[in-house]
Amino acid sequence: MCHQTVSLVARHLEANGIPTVVFAAARDIVEHVGVPRLVHNDFPLGNPCGEPYNVEQQREILEYGFKLLERAFVPRTTIQTPFRWSKGDAWKDLILTPEQPFQSEESEKAWLERKEKYRKLKAEGRV
């Protein structure tokens, strides 16, 4: 599930009296949506709760979430874990660039078309 969807579900649950904590790697997206509680890890997308097979790290990250659930008394509370990706930050060079080398020209064109269609629907009040 994408960060935005999880964030919106968390907001809905909170509005209905169910406390939530979101674990995410894309801090800007999740904070923009306005989740009540966020545990952020500076890891590649898809790894918000730790590195694969690193059970001890995953347990520690979950513990951050439990503590946040207990102690966060103001909305939109974010904590940053101290963990770093064990293989370094080279993954950021593939993601955080304007070129986005992982994306083909065709897929980028399709994405831009969908984005424009959404903008038009939003302007018409249909979404």
Strands, total number: 3
Tell me the domain tally: 2
- Could you tell me how far the N terminus lies from the C terminus, measured between alpha carbons in angstroms? 20 Å
Range of strand content:
5-15%
Shape: flat
Largest sheet, spatial ordering of strands: 1-2-3
Task: Supply the number of helical segments.
Answer: 5
Helix/strand-derived category reads mainly alpha
> What kind of sheet is the major sheet?
3 strands, parallel
3D architecture notes:
Helix content is 49%, strand content 9%. It starts with a helix and ends with a helix. It is flat. It has two domains: 3-87, no CATH class; 97-127. It contains five helices and three strands; from the N terminus they run αβαβαβαα. It has helices spanning 3-15, 27-33, 55-71, 90-95, 105-123; strands at residues 22-24, 37-40, 77-80. A three-stranded parallel beta sheet has the order 1-2-3, sandwiched between helices. The chain is mostly helical.
Feature tags:
5 helices, 3 strands, flat
What does the secondary structure layout of this molecule look like, with pairings?
Layout (H helix, E strand, L loop, with lengths): L2 H13 L6 E3 L2 H7 L3 E4 L14 H17 L5 E4 L9 H6 L9 H19 L4
Parallel strand pairs: 1-2, 2-3
Question: What's a concise summary of this model?
Answer:
49% of the residues lie in helices and 9% in strands.
